[in-house]
Amino acid sequence: MKSTFKKLLPFAVVGILSGATTVGVQQYLVHDSNNGDQSYFTKSNNASFVGMNTATVGDDFVKASKMTVPAVVTIKNYQNRASSRASEQDLFDFFFGDPLGGKGQQRQKQQQAPENMPSGLGSGVIISPDGYIISNNHVVAGANKLEVVLSNKKSYIATLVGTDPNTDISLLKIEEKRFALFKLCQF
Asked: CATH 3.30.70.100: does it fit domain 63-79+119-187?
C-alpha cells in the first residue's frame, strides 16, 4: 500500500500545483483587465433599434435579382472521355489482367458516355456587352468544347480567352452582341 502511495504522491503534488497556478494566473488576468481604461465601455442612452420592413427587403431582393439573373450563365464543359477511361482500364488490366478474357475492349466501348454529354457544369457572369464571361478555372479546365447557356435558354459555343489557375479565374468569349451584363460598379 505504501509503495502505491509513494508512486502516486508526485502526480498528486504536480496536479495540485498546476491547479493552483492556473487559478492564480486566471485571477491575475481578470483583476488586471478590470483596472484598465474602460472608456470604450461607456453606456449610450441614444441607442435605438431600427425597424426593418420585410416587404422592403423582399422588394429590394426582387429588384436586384431581376437586374442580375439575365447576366448569369450556365457553362457546360465537354471533355474527351475515351482517353481517360482507356487509361484507367489499361492500368486495371496491367495489374489484374482482363477478367473477361479479351472482351474488355468490348465492355469499355459499351460503358463510354455519349460524346454530346457534358463532363461538368458550372456558372459564369457576363461582364461586357460584347460577350465576355468570367467564371472559375475549375469549371473550364480540360475542356475540348465549352457551351454557354443564357438565362433565356439560348446556347452559344464559347472560346477560352484565358485562365489563371492560381486565382481560379477564367475568361470566356461568346460571339454575339448586346448581352445583358452584370455591372460590378457604377462610374
From this structure: no
